[in-house]
């Protein structure tokens, strides 16, 4: 009978993880850094990049640094949202792995 309980808990956990995955994909984060706009979801998947025309007249090295900084900021925000969602999923007692106590 214990085996059935473990299987049921595993199925429940898989369902929760699937729901969390959907929520993370649906949460869209808009980040703007020095007029560079990046759109990313909470799964840290980059969706859109907008570089203003006037910035493209700058030196290549400057543009690259600004873009990297913008991506870094967007990634940090996505990771923070992902951590929040994972914390909510695990609850105050942490995650329960079937078969372990």
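^ Assign residues to that structure.
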């Amino acid at each position: 009978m214990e085996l059935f309980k473990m299987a049921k808990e595993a199925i429940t956990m898989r369902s929760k993880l699937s729901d969390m995955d959907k929520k993370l994909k649906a949460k869209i984060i808009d980040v703007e850094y020095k007029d560079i706009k990046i759109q990313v979801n909470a799964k840290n998947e980059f969706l859109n990049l907008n570089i203003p025309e006037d910035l493209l007249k700058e030196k290549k090295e400057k543009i690259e640094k600004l873009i990297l900084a913008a991506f870094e900021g967007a990634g940090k925000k996505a990771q923070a949202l992902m951590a929040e969602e994972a914390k909510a999923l695990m609850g105050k007692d942490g995650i329960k792995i079937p078969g372990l106590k």
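DSSP finds two helices and three strands in the chain.
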